[in-house]
Amino acid sequence: MSTHAKVKRITVPEIRARKGAQPVVSLTSYHAHTARYIDPYVDLILVGDSLGMVMYGMETTLGVTLDMMIAHGSAVVRGTERALVVVDMPFGTYEESPEVAFRNAVRIIKETGCTAVKMEGGARLAETIRYVVDRGIPVMAHIGLTPQSIQVMGGFKAQGRVKEDWAAIEEDARAVAEAGAFSVVVEGVAEPLAERITKQIPIPTVGIGASPACDGQILVLEDMLGLSPKPPKFVKEYATMGAAIAGAAEAYAEDVRARAFPGPEHTYKMKKVDGEA
Question: pTM, whole model, 2 decimals?
Fold first, then answer.
């Protein structure tokens, strides 16, 4: 009798140990099917609140709810067995107090089965990160361009492009590392600053628009598949799925209108009953 060997899921200590070693490969996913396709190849899957824009057509991530994150996080966990799954805490679910953040993080962990949560913010969140980590929930931090703060930032703008801004971002990186975050997403940051931060802190930096100097990289899956109409400058498209989907839909429409689909091979026939000719 053959037995199916259960795949061991990547752990938080294993990701932390990648610092300065093998790069951490990360992508986003929001549903079970795409998660299943990428699971064998990535180390970490982020169920990002970017799903508000990618899946729901929102202009920002600010309208994403905790229930939405839990629903999509549960689907991704069900579709994976190898990658470490991290779920974003949406805007308004962790800023009020460490206690509120912990309560909502517990709900995410319990209801999705994921391993860790992610919070946006640097030094101002250090107390909250420490509180949550000390109570047994791993936290991934997020600094630089933080989409939940775009009202304050004035839009999706790259950070650290003038040296006068470096000190505050470097302090954010040090603060989240000292608070106990196991890794930190560094988004939309000038390359020299990303390199400095990566050298300064003991946890892996996972870059998105932050240069190859980081300890790993993450992209929104739909961006790298060519499904986004206007992907950011830092995205490399590894496929052109948008064009493929449009082409398939066009061919399907032509077949239906010409009554060429469904064909005999797609149609159920009557069963023969004993005695019938």
Answer: 0.92
